[in-house]
Amino acid sequence: MNKIVKNDLVVVIAGKDKGRRGTVTELKANGKLLVQGINIAKKHQKGNPNAGVAGGIVEKEMPIDVSNVMLVNPANDKGDRVGFRLLEDGEKVRYFKSNGEVIS
Q: What pLDDT, on a 0 to 100 scale, did the predictor assign at position 19?
């Protein structure tokens, strides 16, 4: 189980997009993730008329390291650390370290 999963709302804590928020769209196996609207790079793309792809400069979301983002706690609307806890029924859940609230 990962501390950050797909569709989580995160805030960037380091880098050129520090302070910006976005939703996690994809998790990579190498400890990186894609966040919607964060870490945008310009890519020079060659056109392919057979596939209907136009050439030019396109903007693309690049992966950001998982250590550079924090999960947003809706209780205080700030980034918060995440831990794991076992419930009475044996289920492993994520929770916010600041207030102990379980993440659904």
A: 97
